[in-house]
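hey can u check if this looks right to u? its 616 residues, i copy pasted from the old doc so theres a chance i mangled smth
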Amino acid sequence: MNNKVNIALKENLGFRIVFSVIVVIIFVLTAHTMFSVIREGNKEKKSLRERGEILVRLIAKRSMVGVFAENREMLKDVVSDVMGLQDVLSVTIYNSNAKVLCSRRKTSSISSQVTPDDNAIDNVKFTDALNISENPVSFVFIKPVALRPEGQGDETLYFSPPEAGKSERVIGYVRIALSKDTYRHEIASVVEQNVIIMIIFIIASVTIIHMLVKKVTNPLKTLTNKVKAFEKGLPIDPLPVETNDEVGNLAAAFNAMTVARGQAENSMRESEERYRRLVELSPDAIYVQHDDKFMFINKSGATLLGASDPSQLLGQRVSNHIDEKEREYTRRRVQQVQEDGVILPLFQAKHVKLDGTTVDVEMSVSPFVIKGVHAVLVIARDVTARKGMEAQIRSYQQEIHSVTSEMLSLESQVEERERNLIAADLHDFVGQNLLALNFKLSMLQRSLPSPESIGQVEELREIVEQTIQHTRSLTVELSPPILVELGLKYAIEDLAEGFEKTYGVRVAVEDDGQLKPVDDNARYLLFRCVRELLVNVVKHSKADTVKISLTRTNDNIEVTIADNGIGFDTVSAIRKNKGFGLFTIRDRMRRLGGYCEIETEPGSGTKVSLVSPIKL
């Protein structure tokens, strides 16, 4: 059934239009039904809430004396009057201790579902103001019965005055539940009306649209048959243009197309002449070769090969005008085009002029048919000047690279000096001031008499101590003392020991014992890279063992970090922007004149090698 509908939608325009109209009508009327249901439902809910508020306030007022005296007979009269109303499901009156004084409910399935046990205090939410709650089939209103000091005179005679400082005194509670039957009936009525309207609209729309579609599709079928005949080259009679609308315009356009068909054939002959002139006037060399001989060559091609007129080259062997070193390679490329019928991408070669000099060209070779002969079309462009400019650009790039390397070296030295200065300032000024502040706070804490003040000062001391620890950590990160005083090996061993204590990952450090002299900048960058790789192991690899190896090979120092974790796919990590840290490490090693290698795959751990030249 679904396949038949899909085929009809693809092949039958009329069915598509009718189907679309039905879908739009259903969508619009469904939205209208939902809007109407929400609007009428909110209106009915508001009416029920207002009615419930009035009833619960009225009962609270009328039952004030009965609640105070706990006179059940008086309360029964009040409740009986209200229970006679249509939407009232239950009425319950409590004293101030949540004891039921009077309760009435209608015996129905709905009432038993939504009215809780009136003797259960936990089922009633008592408040000092009007409380309204809602469940699937009813509204529940709870109102305190209260005395106010500004009440009427007869009330103050029977009831004791409220406690001092209170505006009113609660002596009991009234609870009433109203049914949602009226609300549900209203919603059902709205839905029923809209369904009837939807059916009427669909029937009327389908009838009207079907008639209109027929007026459009019948001329289109006639036009389709004419087009098929046109495609086969059969003689075609003009289509009748019966209307001035889009269909009539389409028929008129088709008639004009058949007239233009003959004109197009004449235009094609003119076009061939124009393209011949374009070839003749092209600044690129264009020639056609067959059996290694020139069959055609334009004026630019003759000029490129040092001839004054194209006729000087016609019939000559093309291979005689290809540099001897590239002659065999070019012959194979041309043969590939002739045999496989492919278009080769641009490639460079050297052409030999009539005077024996050579010229650099960029060639494109493609199959070509001329006078029924399968030949090869060659387009060649003189790139001698461009190659000279490229050589000059490469020279400039080398100079720029040299200057950039010097600037990077200077930048690294400046960065190292700034790190040391910042670390010194943090230690000598910020750190000392924080210690002094912590000491002062400690003295202040001892002199305060109030426990609350002492607690606040203690909180300040904790913040200051956290700041001191963070400052010390930052100082060590900027300029690790052990790295400066003892060297890279001992700094990495200390770093590994810290990671073992902090994260529980076993980190083993091995050194080949050879001397590894490096300057301060290289030592610091290598240390930072190792620390960042260890952080990556803890965060991502799920490894429990890491091995760090320091070796010297010729004039290079190599630091290898290998773990037994889950590994990762490097290509996928780059696509998901998760390889930024590795990219940064590669950039740092490049600045040192070294490189970074990564060996990993999912499930087999990761090995990262940092290689830097020895720098004294």
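Residues 388-472 form one domain.
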